[in-house]
Design brief:
The chain has one domain: Jelly Rolls, CATH 2.60.120. Helix content is 36%, strand content 19%. It has five helices and seven strands. β3 and β4 form a beta hairpin. The N terminus and C terminus are likely disordered.
């Protein structure tokens, strides 16, 4: 797929992310990161117009890193041969999803470069997976006037857990 033909703004959008990764767009403002259908032959690095919380294993496949990306930052979609598709998960969401929600008022309170490196416990990994599963369930529900509020609540919960996990990792590292 030639992404230049489908992207005239030189920015990754939720819809473009879904097209590049072989996913159906279930909601125009939010999607789960699932790279199992990714057929990119080279890594893609472009600014994005969405927030993204990405969880992925490091090179050894044992540790997990969490990274919060803000709109305007460079977003990377690794080519199939550069990543473990099973471990690359997360959620991407457009700022408009947050309109008139409590998260809109304090999205800037989260670390702008929430980058957590270190082994997450199985329980922490399961908590992240459970939050993503709840978002996925709501994405597969027909969109109604409650959809955005419910999805944003799950995203906020996910962000809060990830902030806790990163803080715990940093504290554990600083004690060593």
């Amino acid at each position: 797929m030639n992404w230049n033909k489908i992207n005239t703004n030189n920015v990754i959008t939720v819809d473009l992310f879904n097209k590049l990764t072989g996913q159906e767009t279930l909601h125009p403002l939010v999607s789960l990161a699932n790279l199992s259908g990714n057929k990119l032959s080279e890594d893609l690095r472009m600014p994005c117009n969405f927030y993204a919380l990405i969880c992925r294993p490091d090179e050894s496949g044992v540790q997990t890193s969490l990274r919060l990306v803000n709109p305007g930052e460079i977003f990377e979609i690794p080519a199939a041969f550069h990543r473990n598709a099973k471990g690359y998960t997360g959620v991407i969401f457009h700022p408009d999803l947050l309109c008139d929600t409590p998260l809109e008022q304090h999205i800037n309170d989260y670390p702008t470069r929430c980058c957590c490196h270190g082994a997450l416990t199985e329980r922490e990994q399961q908590t992240i997976a459970d939050c993503l599963k709840e978002i996925d369930k709501e994405l597969h529900h027909s969109i109604d006037r409650h959809s955005s509020t419910i999805i944003v609540s799950h995203i906020e919960l996910l962000l809060n857990y990830c902030t806790r996990f990163c803080s715990s990792t940093k504290q554990a590292i600083s004690r060593v």
